[in-house]
C-alpha cells in the first residue's frame, strides 16, 4: 500500500474532512501512529534522495515526527525551529509566523550553531495551508545564507504545486 493510500484509509477510518479542516489528531498530530509516519517519511525521503539534503528543518511541534522519519531515511540531522527561545540559545535566526489553526502569532527561532551557509535544507511540515510557517522558514534560511532545496508536507491544502505532498486537499474531496 502506498503512503497516499494508507493516509487516505486512516483519514477515512479515524479522521474527518470538513472543508479545509482535516482532522488527523488520532494518528498524526496529537496521538501519532509511528508505522504510518515511517511510511510517509520513506515516501518523502525518496522524492529528495538525489537533492543532496544535509539537514531537515521543521517548525515545532507537528512537523517533528515527519522530520525525524525523513531525516532517518536520508541519514541527516533534523532541526526544529523553536517557538520559545531558551536562554542557552544566545545567537539565533528568527522569523514571525502566524498559525491559522491556533489563531496566534509566534516567532520561530533556530540557533546559529545548527545552520551554516554550506547546508542544503529540506523543509518538512504536517500541513501547508496559507504559507505563514513556510515564509518564516524561508526568512530563517535567508538569514543563514543557506540553500532551501525543497519543501514537503503530509497534506497540501493550498493551490501551490511547488510543495511536495502525500495528499492535497483535492484528494480528500
Verbal overview:
- The chain is α/β, with parallel strands linked by helices.
- The protein has one domain (3-172): Rossmann fold (3-Layer(aba) Sandwich).
- 29% of the residues lie in helices and 32% in strands.
- It has 4 helices and 9 strands, in the order αββαβαββββαββ.
- It has helices spanning 3-14, 34-48, 64-74, 132-144; strands at residues 16-18, 21-23, 55-59, 78-81, 92-99, 104-111, 120-128, 147-156, 164-168.
- The protein has a 5-stranded parallel sheet with strand order 4-3-7-8-9, sandwiched between helices. A two-stranded antiparallel ribbon has the order 1-2.
- β7, α4 and β8 form a beta-alpha-beta unit.
- α2 (34-48) crosses α3.
- The longest helix is centred in the N-terminal third of the chain and has 15 residues, at 34-48.
- It is globular, with a radius of gyration of 15 Å.
**Main beta sheet strand tally, sense and closure:** 5 strands, parallel
CATH architectural group: 3-Layer(aba) Sandwich
N-to-C CA distance? 21 Å
Strand content: 25-35%
Strand order within the widest beta sheet: 4-3-7-8-9
Overall mean pLDDT score? 94
The string of secondary-structure elements, in order, is HEEHEHEEEEHEE
Total number of distinct structural domains: 1
Q: Which class do the helix and strand fractions yield?
A: alpha/beta
Number of strands: 9
CATH topology term? Rossmann fold
Radius of gyration: 15 Å
Oligomeric grouping of the chains: single chain
Indicate the percent of residues in helices. Answer: 25-40%
SSE layout and pairing:
Elements: H1 3-14, E1 16-18, E2 21-23, H2 34-48, E3 55-59, H3 64-74, E4 78-81, E5 92-99, E6 104-111, E7 120-128, H4 132-144, E8 147-156, E9 164-168
Parallel strand pairs: 3-4, 3-7, 7-8, 8-9
Antiparallel strand pairs: 1-2, 5-6
Helix pairs in contact: 1-2, 2-3
Amino acid at each position: 500500500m502506498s503512503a497516499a493510500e494508507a493516509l487516505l484509509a486512516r483519514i477515512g477510518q479515524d479522521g474527518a474532512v470538513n472543508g479545509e479542516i482535516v482532522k488527523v489528531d488520532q494518528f498524526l498530530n496529537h496521538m501519532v501512529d509511528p508505522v504510518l509516519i515511517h511510511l510517509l517519511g520513506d515516501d518523502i525521503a525518496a522524492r529528495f534522495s538525489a537533492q543532496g539534503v544535509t539537514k531537515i528543518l521543521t517548525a515545532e511541534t507537528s512537523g517533528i515526527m515527519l522530520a525525524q522519519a525523513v531525516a532517518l531515511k536520508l541519514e541527516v540531522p533534523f532541526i526544529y525551529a523553536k517557538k520559545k527561545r531558551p536562554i542557552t540559545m544566545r545567537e539565533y535566526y528568527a522569523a514571525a509566523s502566524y498559525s491559522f489553526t491556533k489563531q496566534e502569532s509566534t516567532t520561530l527561532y533556530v540557533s546559529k550553531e545548527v545552520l551554516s551557509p554550506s547546508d542544503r535544507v529540506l523543509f518538512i511540515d504536517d500541513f501547508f495551508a496559507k504559507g505563514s510557517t513556510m515564509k518564516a522558514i524561508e526568512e530563517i534560511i535567508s538569514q543563514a545564507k543557506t540553500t532551501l532545496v525543497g519543501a514537503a508536507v503530509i497534506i497540501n491544502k493550498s493551490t501551490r504545486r511547488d510543495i511536495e505532498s502525500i495528499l492535497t486537499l483535492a484528494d480528500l474531496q
